Amino acid sequence: ALSFRSSHYFVSYVASALLILAGFPLSLSTTVRPLYIELPRSLVQVVIHWNIPMHYWLKTYIFRPSIKRLGKFGAVTVTYLISALLHGLNFQLAAVLLSLGFYTYVEFQLRAMLADTFDACVASKQCTSHKCTHKYTSYNSLCVFITNMAFSTLSMFHLAYLGLMFDTSDLQETGYSYSHTIDKWAQLGFASHWVALTTYCIYFLIK
């Protein structure tokens, strides 16, 4: 997984350098932010900063038009399906992306509800310091700080689990079979999926 991320960062920075040399401003040339991926506040943050131009395109042309007809969950599912297709017909990658889509949806909904209920800055997307209107933040509440750290740790757990699908073998180039992907997750007891399902049940029960 580390080699996979490192190669992605390298290609992204090369692309950014070429854009800057071509005359594009830095604000339009940033394609990845590794710090937000390696030390994420949330899975939503990882999705946004993994490939910033692609995220913007999917959000603008797939997610927003779909949400009116399909609702949030349907729009998220369609968006990740399109993303999987754009990455190629690879079951392994599609399974990871669809799992990530479900994880991010559950996390976003749960944290948004907690933020509204307790007037606390615990949403998936961090408020900017001068625009945060929440009564409780990580700076004045230990509970908020611990909650955000817990979700951050949970995000890293999910990412480590999903990242196990990627290695340096020759088969990685063409993608593993359906059975290989499922067997690998089965060896881990589908731990991340069970945690995500439990998180969804908690959200469903308290919403």
UniProtKB/TrEMBL annotation:
Its EC number is 2.3.1.250. GO terms for biological process: lipid modification; Wnt protein secretion; Wnt signaling pathway. It is found in: Membrane. It catalyses: [Wnt protein]-L-serine + (9Z)-hexadecenoyl-CoA = [Wnt protein]-O-(9Z)-hexadecenoyl-L-serine + CoA. Its main location: membrane. The chain crosses the membrane at residues 6-27, 78-103, 142-165, 185-206. GO terms for molecular function: palmitoleoyltransferase activity; Wnt-protein binding. InterPro entries: LPLAT_7/PORCN-like, MBOAT_fam. It is an enzyme of class 2 (transferase). It is a multi-pass membrane protein. Keywords: Acyltransferase, Membrane, Transferase, Transmembrane, Transmembrane helix, Wnt signaling pathway. One of its GO terms (cellular component) is membrane. Belongs to the membrane-bound acyltransferase family. Porcupine subfamily. This is Protein-serine O-palmitoleoyltransferase porcupine. It comes from Harpegnathos saltator.
